[in-house]
Here is the input.
Amino acid sequence: MATPKPFQHAAFLRDLEQFVAGGSCPASCSPELAAILRTPGVDARPSPAASQLVRLLHARKAVLKAAFDTGQVADELRRHQKFAKPGQPSPHIVQLRQQQAAARQASSQSRQLLIQSAAAFVREAGIVPPARLALEAFIDGWMEASLPQDPRTPG
Here is the structure.
């Protein structure tokens, strides 16, 4: 059985949630990221971009989970359809198709939430994405380059 890909920013997300709830800015932040996360003029208070980044990281985590679930259901459906007899599908295959449809819908919804969260974060942080680049692709690259990753997860 396949294992889900670990979320690379789990520790940072935990630290960021504590910061938004009233803690201190995560120590693993670069100076550029800390400038985005703190309210200008008041170092201890989180900016609105910090809460949007929390939303964005939760959405990214949901996209990874939905992609894994979709792949799992598709693999199981392929295994069972390989040996299915022609004609009316078995109740188990019908159930697997329903699970696949639900997994695809969850994947679409999580991707939409990611794009909405990315748009809100980019707007709050004042980041200007390059033209002719999808927001999802830009934010994935920005997250990989700018956010600290867990030391125990492969990059």
In short: The mean pLDDT is 89. The radius of gyration is 20 Å.
